[in-house]
Specification:
The protein has 20 helices and ten strands. By secondary structure, the chain is α/β, with parallel strands linked by helices. Helix 14 packs parallel to helix 20 and helix 17 packs antiparallel against helix 18. It is elongated and about 125 Å long. Strands 2-1-4-5-3-6-7-10 form an eight-stranded mixed sheet, with helices on both faces. The chain has a two-stranded antiparallel sheet with strand order 8-9.
């Protein structure tokens, strides 16, 4: 519940959009203020980006999705208003544990800018960062509107799947590309497909059919674009908006109430809002891991950095960098929690060794829960090992301090309870009839008082052992035992008793450590299984898409394209089978060295407690 309140508060603070990407002289830069806001969102994000030609009402559309008329800046002049990429975080009432992130992009083909490469960079970022991509086009889908989507055909040339690319990489695009939503604005004609009235989705599928022949260069470009849309985007749909009102009122569109708008326009608008608010397309990176606000920030930094250096954005490289940053941050966050918790109890002034051990056990488990919540799947397990080693180091440091503190306290307690007895021994007080019995009673009382003051402290035993008296033999009494020998014998018996208790404690500690080791290994197993599940589901969806496209190509009589789609399906199927055959046992074998290191660290925790106690 507390997480939801923080989430809601963060959204309430973002009352207006912020510029996320600044576009100055063709150079793209991230706005630190926007990044700071994004980092406050820990929930998964549905990222909706809108692209399209300049001055086609993209910002107004995004305001509709945000439920606020005066969010993104809207201008009725012929001059393009949005520059770079603007963002706005909104709540999703039907999905309280997710965040809606709206991205409004700079318009395509702005004559004042005249930079096609810069346009392509803006839209490339929109595709890489979004989970749903809206193309905002005017009127019907014609050749001109398709030409405005030319940047889609540049994707394979502008995105690199791996640092060492090969010809099969393009089939992986469908695994992480966003869903494609075509919004037709100001539609004045009935939608028609093959002479029949068609729904917006049917009309889009009709438009995306390939042309026969491909004789002219224009036909080849026509079909290339359609193939790119059909092959790369995992799903697609269309919404058709009639004009919202009379053209004379369009300048005041932002101020108009729903009652002043055309009913068909508001109905279609609501359909789009419902689709985006309920559709389960949360942003994920390649491999299926969910993207939160923090992860979105890191992705944006990596992609902008790659583009600024003149290189191609590398998808696998960005995921590797994101994983590294997130997992290291997860280690640091978990470690800070553990360290703060240990400091709190050690600095309280009333710590005992048993309380320290108990606190360590509790804080350590909570620290690993924090790590698991934030970390991303990492097959090497190196970050779990790093966290355990650092917790081990902090624990050892606190134990040494507590040991030194209580050794001094135990020595003080023992000196105090034994002082009067030693004085009586020295003075010969017990060298009298009945003196031995009196000595026994005094010793019992002194040891009980000492035990009460040092109970549950392993240092109590160590200090008691160090105080075994080695006094000179004195005059024999009628029992043939000197007072000094009686004192030594009583202490020896007490030491034996405490030693037996320590052995029992050691057995319990070993059993606990074995249980805790199993718990850590179970956490590793679960993390790996979760990561495998994400990857398998991602590949399964991609395979289903390619299978569907193959069937559509076949129905259209495009057997060559159907065969090409089948090749993509087989490529993804091979990866899917490899992912489903993966097992924790196989991983254990492949990563035996790292796991042995982890088990060594875990095993050292029990030895640490016992070694400090026995020193």
């Amino acid at each position: 519940m507390s997480e939801t309140r923080v989430h809601d508060t963060s959204i309430q603070k973002m009352e207006k959009p912020l510029q996320l990407v600044c576009n100055e002289d063709g150079k793209l830069q991230l706005n630190p203020e926007a990044l700071k806001v994004l980092q406050s969102f820990e929930d998964p994000m549905v990222v909706v980006a809108v692209v399209g030609a300049a001055r086609t009402g993209k910002s107004y559309l995004m305001n509709c999705l945000a439920g606020d008329k005066k969010g993104f800046s809207v201008d009725s002049t012929t001059q393009a208003h949005t520059k770079g990429i603007w963002m706005w975080c909104r709540s999703l009432p039907q999905r309280p544990n997710e965040v809606l992130l709206l991205l409004d992009t700079e318009g395509l083909g702005d004559p004042d800018k005249g930079d096609i490469d810069n346009d392509n960079s803006i839209y490339l970022l929109a595709i890489l960062l979004s989970s749903i991509l809206i193309y905002n086009g005017q009127r019907n889908i014609d050749q001109q509107s398709l030409q405005d989507l030319h940047f889609v055909t540049e994707l394979s040339k502008r995105i690199q799947m791996k640092s060492q690319p090969d010809d099969s990489d393009n089939w992986d695009f469908v695994r992480f590309f966003p869903e494609f939503v075509w919004v037709i604005r100001d539609l004045t004609l009935d939608l028609n497909a093959d002479g029949k009235n068609a729904s917006p989705n049917e009309y889009l599928e009709h438009i995306l059919k390939l042309k026969d022949g491909e004789i002219s260069e224009q036909d080849k470009k026509y079909n290339e674009l359609r193939r790119c849309i059909r092959d790369n985007f995992p799903s697609r749909c269309c919404f058709a908006f009639p004009p919202p009102t009379h053209w004379k009122k369009l300048k005041q569109l932002q101020e108009l109430e729903d009652k002043d708008l055309e009913e068909d326009f508001t109905k279609e608008r609501q359909k789009l809002i419902n689709y985006l608010h309920t559709h389960k397309k949360v942003k994920r990176v390649l491999g299926g891991q969910l993207v939160t606000g923090r992860r979105f920030v890191e992705l944006a930094k990596v992609y902008i950095g790659m583009m600024a250096d003149g290189g191609l954005p590398c998808v696998e490289g960005s995921v590797a960098k994101l994983t590294e940053v997130e997992n290291q941050a997860a280690v640091d966050e978990a470690l800070k929690f553990y360290d703060d918790g240990m400091k709190e109890i050690t600095e309280s002034g009333c710590t005992t060794m048993s309380k320290l051990i108990e606190n360590h056990d509790v804080k350590r488990i909570e620290a690993f829960n924090i790590f698991n919540k934030r970390s991303m799947n990492n097959n090497s397990g190196e970050y779990i090992i790093q966290l355990e080693e650092k917790i081990n180091s902090i624990y050892k440091s606190h134990m040494v301090k507590i040991k030194e503190k209580f050794e001094k306290e135990c020595e003080t307690h023992l000196k105090k309870v034994m002082s009067s007895i030693k004085k009586k021994v020295t003075s010969g007080h017990y060298q009298k009839p009945g003196g031995i019995q009196e000595l026994k009673e005094d010793l019992d009382k002194a040891i009980k008082e000492y035990e009460e003051r040092t109970k549950n402290e392993m240092e109590g035993w160590a200090v008691l052992e160090g105080e075994k008296p080695r006094l000179n033999h004195a005059q024999n009494l009628d029992s043939k035992l000197t007072a000094e020998q009686m004192l030594a014998s009583a202490l020896e018996q007490e030491l034996e008793r405490v030693k037996q208790e320590m052995e029992k404690m050691e057995q319990r500690r070993k059993a606990y450590e074995e249980c805790r080791n199993k718990e850590i290994m179970e956490q590793i197993r679960k993390r790996l299984e979760d990561g495998k599940t994400c990857s398998v589901e991602e590949l399964k969806e991609a395979m289903e898409h390619m299978r569907s496209e193959k069937e559509k190509y076949a129905v259209e009589g495009r057997m060559e394209d159907a065969q090409r789609a089948q090749q993509g399906y087989e490529y993804l199927k091979k990866k899917y089978e490899g992912a489903t055959e993966w097992s924790v046992v196989k991983f254990m074998r492949e990563n035996a060295e790292n796991l042995n290191t982890l088990l060594t660290v875990l095993g050292s925790m029990a030895a640490l407690v016992l070694s400090i106690a026995k020193k």
